[in-house]
Design brief:
Elements (H helix, E strand, L loop, with lengths): L1 H28 L16 E7 L2 E8 L2 E9 L5 E7 L2 E10 L4 E8 L2 E9 L5 E7 L2 E9 L4 E8 L2 E2 L3 E3 L1
Antiparallel strand pairs: 1-2, 2-3, 3-4, 4-5, 5-6, 6-7, 7-8, 8-9, 9-10, 10-11, 10-12
Length: 166
């Protein structure tokens, strides 16, 4: 068990380093100047970083809001990196919950999974398909850890179609 804890600790450190490098690449590619002044509500057409209530954002700002590419770290350590619009996750992005091991890659709209995306659950199962307002909603494939699949239509996370082994 001790070796597993050491590996898990090493993986967390490696992920943090990757996130830092990813955030730096956002700045390196940015054409916007660095945000200036202490009042982030006035930051516009610039890139910068803020920390509030245990959360951190590094990325682009427009009219004092997260807007463009950036990385947001939640107070529990979960991380979203991707596109923001008017202060919310919107566009292409990746959400990772380090604590539970869940990961979503795909489309977001107004801070919710919305569009096409892949969600890897902590138990080893995954879902690939349509999302609406944060729910599995539309056509998709849910694959259990065992390999068994549910292929068909989902509505608010409920499977409506027939399941079969894949």
């Amino acid at each position: 068990m001790l070796a597993f804890d050491n590996i898990q600790s090493l993986m967390k450190k490696l992920i943090i380093i990757i996130l830092i490098l990813f955030s730096k690449s956002i700045f390196a590619e940015s054409l916007e100047p660095k945000c200036k002044g202490n009042d982030d509500s006035k930051w516009t057409n610039c890139y910068g970083s803020i920390s509030k209530n245990g959360t951190t954002y590094v990325g682009k700002f427009m009219n004092g809001m997260m807007h463009g590419k950036g990385t947001f770290t939640y107070s529990d350590g979960a991380t979203y990196f991707g596109e923001f619009k008017n202060g919310e996750e919107s566009g292409k992005g990746t959400f990772i919950c380090w604590q539970h091991g869940a990961k979503y890659e795909g489309d977001f709209l107004n801070g919710k999974k919305h569009g096409k995306g892949t969600y890897n659950f902590p138990d080893g199962s995954n879902y690939v398909g349509d999302w609406k307002d944060g729910y599995r909603d539309g056509d998709g494939v849910y694959t259990f850890k065992s390999g068994k699949k549910k292929v068909g239509t989902f509505k608010k996370n409920k499977f409506l179609g027939d399941s079969h082994d894949g």
